[in-house]
Design goal:
about 230 residues, six-stranded mixed sheet, 4 helices, 14 strands, globular
């Protein structure tokens, strides 16, 4: 497992804030993940969809969430796989009982222990965006949205930071190719990394699952993303 670190400076940030971003676990509980998160001492943990997998047992992911929610404020927005899981209502109830905040077309304010105020929105479908109330102007606005393709074209400028996954890093990666194959086709534009447009920063995780549609990862290890928010000056 690899840790990718991103540093973002913004005028709305007054206190250093660390976000651990986990995406595309697909019901797995990667060995050493809790220790890796602990080593970075995040102020909050965000899970960006496909926590569960419709073809796998739910228990490993639930065990991981039980551990993380015990130590961190955790926010979760479902991805595409959750839509196919019949027992998702029961799973969401279990996560809420653990202390998880689930955002499926909702927004919530959050203040870190250091006093940084954030506004966090989670969308599972683009059309939900019309239902969102605008946060106070001084709050750093985070969107959790599983699908990175075209998200900047409709959400850029509305949010300060967008956290996505879904493309699995393009499965195969080389120095010349950022990603070979994703859900959006060959050479996905947002396979993984940091992208900026219209005043918005998009961070795309390459995912934490070891299984990718039956194909092995190449040059693209499972990835824990750490985002550090810092004051502009």
């Amino acid at each position: 497992m690899f840790t990718e670190n991103y540093v973002i400076r913004h005028r709305k940030i007054t206190k250093k804030t660390k976000i651990a971003f986990l995406s595309d676990l697909h019901s797995e509980h990667p060995h050493g993940l809790e220790r890796a998160v602990e080593n970075h001492a995040p102020d909050l943990v965000i899970i960006g969809g496909d926590l569960f997998d419709r073809r796998a047992a739910n228990e490993p992911a639930l065990q991981l969430m039980d551990s993380l929610t015990e130590n961190y404020a955790c926010f979760y927005t479902p991805g595409n796989h959750e839509l196919y899981i019949k027992e998702r209502t029961e799973l969401y109830a279990t996560l809420r009982n653990l202390g998880m905040t689930i955002l499926d077309g909702q927004s919530t304010p959050f203040t870190t222990d250091k006093g940084q105020r954030l506004w966090i929105t989670g969308l599972t479908r683009r059309e939900q965006s019309a239902k969102q109330s605008a946060p106070p102007d001084d709050l750093f606005h985070i969107l959790i949205y599983h699908y990175p393709e075209k998200v900047l074209s409709w959400a850029g400028g509305t949010f300060d930071l967008i956290l996505s996954g879904h493309e699995h890093g393009g499965i195969w990666r080389t120095k010349q190719i950022n990603g070979l194959l994703g859900h959006s086709g060959l050479f996905p534009k947002h396979a993984g990394g940091l992208y900026q447009e219209k005043g918005t920063t998009l961070v795309v995780s390459r995912g934490l699952t070891s299984r990718i549609i039956g194909l092995p990862r190449f040059g693209n290890p499972p990835e824990l993303v750490m985002v550090e928010l810092l004051p502009e000056n």
